[in-house]
Amino acid sequence: VYEVIKKVEDKIKSFITITPIETVYNYVDNLIKSNKHRIDRLKLFGVPIAIKDNISTKGIRTTCASKMLENYVPPYNATVIEKIMNEGGVIIGKTNMDEFAMGSTTETSAFYPTKNPWDLTKVPGGSSGGSATAIASGEAPLALGSDTGGSIRNPASFCGVYGLKPTYGLVSRYGLIAYASSMDQIGPMARNVTDLAMLLNVIAGYDPRDSTSVPIKQGVDYVDELYKLYYKEPKLRIGIIKEFFDGSEEPVRKAALKAVDVLCSHHKCSDISLPFPRQIIASYYIIAMAEASSNLARFDGVRYGIKINLDNKSWDEAFAEVRTRGFGYEVKKRIAVGAYILSAGYRDMYYIRALKFRRLLKEKFDQIFKSFDVVVSPTMPILPPKLGEFFEDPIRIYLADVNTVVANLIGSPAISIPIDFYNGLPIGLQAIAKQFSEPILLYIAKQLE
Ligand code: GLN
What is the DSSP string of 86-124? Predict the structure, then answer.
């Protein structure tokens, strides 16, 4: 992969930090020495994995693509990193992203935008853009992203790779720098379904260090479960979310319908309706911004963040200077709106109403999942836009998240499956299922592979 990185990295810019190759050699040498008798049992021995730069890596700079954390080197590993290293996986670098995972194109990165490997004039999606491009361009076979409202599935779709947002609570968030804690999940990205399932095997599981981690029985083998279903071919009940097809650009709609036809030749399909797309977006962004404004309060230059000269400055002045210099425009906007939403006079009008809507949406889906095993839609309603195009139209960019945010609001697992190309640009199909139904999503993906 280092050969590929040498060839393409300058053009694509997937990474913020690349592990020096000597470090990798030393690491693997040590692995062999310390595991003499069991390296063949390590699930990821020597496999290079790219990690989104909001996942803490001990001794490796972790920036969240923000000036605020430009020189931050975490003193500990996220649980997912521990798990990957316990299986012999090799962290080959930290990938570019939207600053603090706020965005859909990887353009809000404080350092540079990442480019779509299929067309360098287009965005790769986001916020886990660098993880997706690393896989799509051959810089890494596996990657981790994080998904609060689509940030794994959106770039997976725009770059033509597989991306899975697991059930909320299945993968530990310990060591993930928080954006909106009630929706954040770490998940795997890969070039094929088996790899995706294998990486999920390594990172899933209960972790007492994450209070929302779900103590389910250990030992689900997602590769096993996937192939059991794949060979048995059980018939599923598939719901087609009508509004999400109708709301998509024509080439996307057509490609997604073609994929649905393939599925429906084997499974039982019918239309379902989700008639409130605007409310879905509104409640997602209200909740995300409210939680972000609270989570990002810790970047004050004392606990975390850039260090400034404090001479003769009051706390307020110092706090303001650190945050003015450290945060980019999109992050500042969301903190401001989030604080407003949570303020005494407006809390009930915005935040509490958004929570109520979230509850109703969850109840709606509890009903849907009584009659359906899985629901499908295009992952993104649009093709990858041109670099810069979205910057001029923030509302349009928020609205494009409507298909993906649903899964985060209700805590369900969701996958993006690459299905087709239009004018050389990839298109993805999204499938959402009941909590802890990851095997069903992998099965559907495998059928379309
Ligand atoms: N585009 C969405 C947002 O900006 C999703 C981001 C994410 O999943 N991290 O909030």
Answer: HTT-EEEEEE--SGGG--SSS-S-SS-----TT-TTB--
